[in-house]
Amino acid sequence: MAPDAQEAAVPDYPTRSLGGLTVSAQGLGCMGMSEFYGAADDATSLVVIGRALDLGVTFLDTADMYGPFTNEQLVGRAIAARRDEVVLATKFASVRGEKGEFLGVRGDAAYVRQACDASLARLGVDHIDLYYQHRVDPKTPIEETVGAMAELVQAGKVRHLGLSEAGAATIRRAHAVHPIAALQSEYSLFSRDIEADVRPVLDELGIGLVAYSPLGRGFLTGSITSLDDLDATDFRRHSPRFARAALGANLRLVDEVKAVAADKGVTPGQVALAWVLAQGADVVPIPGTKRESYLQENAAAVDVELTPDDLGRLSTAIPVDAVLGDRYPDMSSIGR
Question: Rounded to two decimals, what is the model's pTM?
Answer without folding.
Answer: 0.93
